[in-house]
Design brief:
5-stranded parallel β-sheet, 219 residues, 4-stranded antiparallel β-sheet, alpha/beta, 33% helix, 9 strands
């Protein structure tokens, strides 16, 4: 199978546990390149843990996780960091903006970690599209929760990743900004033929993506 037809996400026989507590258990999940999917399910079904598994931030107990054709379980340390930095854009539920850096520096950091060229014009354009123009020099402590969430979305998109994954990216946003953020996530993915996976409880998001994957609380 050529790289162009390899799915963006292909998970088989996946499980993850904290001690004796099984948090994630699934037989198969697939997301093709250029497609979008909402991951839904009840509280406690492991949606955020699943996203962290797909990003290689934690390792599964069993199963294979292929991202863009690469089995993440075969990567370690710096090789895993490089793959993630170049190919995956992440929007965390808690944002993880670096407090010592201003908005512009937080976003530029993603370009540097991705190993690509620094494109300040793209940073400025994305910030404007999410109504963040004029806040480039602000530190995270000076931002509202909604503004910080939009900075986190900008950071995830700035290096043109092939897989964009977002954990509740609209949870802190009003209707207008939620619509803007979701539209930018979708447009950015479509521009480069990337896949978009959104973990969400937000009914405003459901129905806007190509499909849904429902997780269950492990028995």
């Amino acid at each position: 199978m050529s790289d162009s037809v390899m799915p963006a996400v292909d998970v088989t026989d996946l499980s993850f546990s904290y001690g004796d507590n099984t948090v994630v258990s699934m037989e198969r999940c697939r997301l093709d390149r250029g497609r979008s999917m909402a991951v839904i399910g009840p509280s406690g079904c492991g949606k955020t843990t699943f996203l962290h598994l797909l990003a290689g931030l934690i390792r599964p107990a069993t199963g294979a996780i292929r991202i863009l054709g690469q089995d993440l379980t075969q990567l370690r340390g710096a090789a895993l960091d490089r793959f993630r930095g170049r190919n995956i854009g992440l929007v965390f539920q808690r944002f993880h903006l670096l407090p010592a850096l201003n908005v512009r520096e937080n976003v530029l950091l993603a370009q540097r970690l991705g190993g690509g060229r620094i494109d300040a014009a793209r940073v400025a354009t994305l910030l404007e599209q999410l109504d963040l123009g004029g806040l480039e020099q602000h530190k995270p402590s000076m931002l509202s929760q909604g503004q910080a969430q939009r900075v986190a979305i900008t950071r995830a998109l700035v290096h043109g990743p092939q897989l964009i994954m977002a954990d509740e990216p609209t949870s802190a946003l009003d209707d207008r900004h939620a619509e803007q953020a979701l539209a930018l996530l979708q447009a950015s993915a479509q521009t480069v033929g990337a896949a978009l996976l959104v973990v969400t409880h937000d009914q405003r998001v459901r129905g806007c993506l190509d499909g849904e994957f429902e997780m269950q609380v492990p028995a």
